[in-house]
Amino acid sequence: MILKEDQVFVVSDLNGDIPGGNDLGLGFYRQDTRYLSVYELRLNGRVPILLNHSVDRAYVATFQLVNPALTNPDGGPIPRQSLSLRRTRFVHNGVLHERIGLQNCNVGPIQVELELRFDADYLDIFTVRGYHSSAVGTTRPAEVTETGLMFAYDGADALLRRTEVVFDPIPRLATGVASFPIALAPHQTFVLMVDVLPIAGEEFPEPDFQFDASLTDLERTYERWNASSSSYRTDNEVLDNGLVWRSLEDLRILCDQTPSGLYPTAGTPWYAVPFGRDALITSFQCLALNPDLAYGTLRYLADHQGTKVDPYREEEPGKILHELRFGELARLKEIPHTPYYGTVDATPLFLVLLIELLDWTGDVELFSELLPNVLAALEWIDRYGDLDEDGLVEYTQHSTLGVRNQSWKDSNNSLTAADGTPAPLPAAVVEVQGYVYQAKAGLARLFRILKRPEVAEKLQREADALRGRFDELFWVRETGFYAQALDRDKRQVRSVSSNPGHCLWSGILSEARAAQVVARLLAPDMFSGWGVRTLSSEEPSYNPMSYHNGSVWPHDNSIIAAGMRRYGFRREAELVARSVLEATMRFTDHRVPELYCGFTRDHRFSSGPGQYLVSCSPQAWGAGALFHFLQTLCGVHADLFAKRLRIDPLETPLFDKLRVEGMRVGDGILDFTVDRSRGGTRVKVHRKPDGLELELPA
Fold it and tell me: Which end of the chain is more exposed for a tag (fewer CB within 10 A), N or C?
C-alpha cells in the first residue's frame, strides 16, 4: 500500500503496518531516506485481522480491521470480530497523518490496550535495495518527549535527520512504544490522531492535528489537477470509472512540485525521483491531457542540463539527466546520481517533446527561453553522442556504478548477441536514431517557421542523411526486420524486438519498410494478444516473465500504436491499443502497470494477463500510456503553426460514445463527442479554439 505526496511517501503492508525486519522496503521515506522503519499496531499484543483496505482516492488510504479473540482484564471474553478498528491515512505537507478509530460493538464494556511500536533506521533507499555502503552515521537513542517520540540520526553526510511522532491524546510512552489503555462502553468509540514528521537539518515543523482540514486541502489540489486536465468519459464503465480515473490520479500523485513546475517522477516505491527519459515520455503521452507536465519537465531538465565532462556521473555538455537522487549516499557522492547522466535517449527526446509541445501550444516564447538548451542538446548529439563520428548516436558505460545499457531497455541482459552474451559497447540502438531524426527534422520545420533558414537547412540535411543511411545499417535481410542495435564493431544485433516500433513513431522509416515492421510486430511471436512483446518468443533470450526480454510494456505499446497510426495503419493501431487496455482492465486495481508478463493470451479459458511481481505501482509512463492510447484512438492532432486541428477517430469496440472536455489547445479549449452507437463514427465538436481550421472525417 503506497501513498505519495511530493518528495514524501509511505509503503506499508495491507494492514497499514510497517513490520520490523521486513525485507520488502516498507517504510516512510523522505528524499531517499527511510525515516520510519517500524510502525506496528497491536491490540493486547495481537495483530488485528484485516477485512479490507482501500485507496479509492490515490492520496488517502483506509484499512478496516477487527480484533482477534481477546480477553478483558477480569477474564471475560472479547469475541473475535466484535471490535471495529479503522485506520485512515494520508500524506500532506511532508507529514504522515493517521486517524485510528476503535469502536466497541459488544453488548458489554471492554478494556483493551492499543499499542503502537516505532523505529527509524535512516537507511538510504539504495541501501534498502541491497547496495553495500561504507557510509555509517550515528543513530541517537530514541527519546520520549512531552507529546510523543523522537528518533534522530547524525548522518555521515553531516546532516541531522529526525523523526518526530506525536499523539493526541497523549499515551503511556516508553522507548519506541506508545500504549493506550482503552475502556469502552457498548458502541462507544475511541479516536487517536498520529502525526509523523520527517525532519532534515534545522527544520522546526509544527505537528498539526487538523486531520479533516488537512485532508480537505489535499483534496483541493487534486480537484485543481482534475480541472486543469482533459476529461474523458465513455460508456465503458470499467474504462471510465476504473482506468481513466485511476490513471489521472496516479499521474498527480507521482508529480513533484518543483520551482520549474510539475514534474512526473518515474514510479513508486523505488523510483519516486526525477528521471529524464521517463518524464519526457510521460509528458509526451499526456500532451492532450495536461500540457503542464511538459512545461515543468522541459524547464526542470533544462535547469539540470549537463555543463561539463564528468565520467563518474556520465555528464557531458548539453546532455539531459537520467536520474537524480537526494539521500545520504548521493550527498556523499558515493553514488553518481547527483545527477547521473547515463542515458542515450533523453537528450533527443527532450527536443522531441519541445517540438510537439509547440505544435500543441504555439508557444514561441518558450522556444526562445529554451533555445540555448536546444542548441546545447544538438551539440551533444553531434559531438558527444556520436562517439566515433559515423553519424550515429551511441552509448557506452563510463562509470562502474552506472547503467550498462542506456536506452529505455536498461537492464544488463536486454542487448545480447545471438549466443546470449552481452553485445560489446559502444552500441547504437535502433530507436535512438529515430529519435534523433525526429528531433532534427522537427526542429528544421520550426526554424523555417521562425525565419532561421540556414539553421533549418543544416538540420534538414542531417536528418535526411541519417534517414538515407538507416536502412543500409539496420535492415536485416534474413529476418525482414530491423536490428535492435549495432555493436562496438558495427555488427548488427539481430534480435527481433519491439524497438523498431518506435521508429514508426519517429517517422524515419519509408512507407514500404513501415508496412513490413507493422506486420512483423503483429506476428504471433511478437504479439501476445495482450500487446506487443519486448522480444520475440523465438529469440534465445526470450522469457515472458523477464523485465525486458519478452514482457509487455504499456508505454512501449502506446508509442508503437501511435507510430502505426502515423503511417496509416488504423486497424493495427486500434488492435494494439485495445489489447493493452483490455489487459489492464483485467487487473484488480484498475491500474495500468509498468509491465506485465508476455504469455500468449488464452482465449479458450479467458484467463487474464500475468502480473509482473515487482512492477512499479503506480508508474508514470504506465498511467500516461492510457491517455496516449486515447489520443491515438481519437485521432486528435494539433498544429498551431499551420492553424489546423484534426479529429479522426478509429473504429473500436472499446466504447460506443466518448465525450472529451477541457482539452487545452493553444489558448483555447476543445470539447467534442465521438459517437458510433448508430453505426459509423460521427464527431460532434462542442467547443474549439478560435482561429483553427477544423478537420473532421467525411
Answer: C
Beta pairing, strands 644-647 & 189-200: unpaired
- 172-174 and 138-144 strand pairing: unpaired
Compute the CA torsion angle 563, 564, 565, 566 (nearest 10 deg).
50
Distance CA 16, CA 36 (A): 13
Q: Are residues 242 and 195 in the same domain?
A: no
Q: How many domains does the chain have?
A: 2
C-alpha cell at 194: 498520529
294-327 tens-digit pLDDT:
999 999 999 999 999 999 999 999 999 999 999 9
What's the one-letter identity of residue 243?
A: L
* Full strand arrangement of the beta sheet holding 8-11: 2-5, 8-11, 27-30, 33-36
Count of CA atoms in the C-beta half-sphere (13 A) of 678:
2
CATH number of the structural domain spanning residue 305? 1.50.10.10
Residue whose grid cell is 491499443: 577
Own/partner contacts of 129-138, CB < 8 Å, gap of 24 or more, are 129/25, 129/270, 131/329, 131/335, 133/329, 133/334, 134/334, 135/328, 135/329, 135/332, 135/334, 137/328
Q: Tens digit of pLDDT for each residue in 36-87?
A: 999 999 999 999 999 999 887 878 999 999 999 999 999 999 999 999 999 9
Who's near 300: CB < 8 A, 6+ residues apart? 258, 260, 261, 263, 274, 279
Closest by CA position to 577, among listed 626, 538, 535, 613: 626
CA angle (320, 326, 555) in 5-degree steps: 50
Alpha-carbon gap, residue 658 to 654, rounded angstroms: 10
* Cβ-based neighbours of 400, under 8 Å, separated by 6 or more: none
pLDDT recorded at residue 78:
96
Q: What is the mean pLDDT of the chain?
A: 95
Average pLDDT over residues 394-400: 92
Strand, coil or helix: 244: helix
Q: Which residues constitute the domain of residue 432?
A: 229-602+611-647
pTM: 0.95
How far is the first Cα of the chain from the last one, in angstroms, to the nearest whole number?
A: 49
Cβ(114)–Cβ(41) under 8 Å?
Answer: yes
Q: If you compute the radius of gyration of the chain from its CA atoms, what whole number of angstroms results?
A: 27
Residue 678 — pLDDT band, cuts 50, 70, 90?
confident
* Concatenated DSSP letters of 316-371: -TTPPPSB---SHHHHTTSSS-SSB---SSHHHHHHHHHHHHHHHH--HHHHHHHH
Angle between helices 453-474 and 430-449 (to 10 degrees): 160
**626 vs 248: CA distance, rounded Å:** 9
Return d(Cα 484, Cα 539) in angstroms, integer. 12
Residue type for 512, please?
A
* pLDDT of amino acid 388: 93
Same domain, 281 and 162: no
In a domain, 677, yes or no: no
Are the C-beta atoms of 624 and 285 separated by less than 8 Å?
yes
Residue 686, domain member (yes or no): no
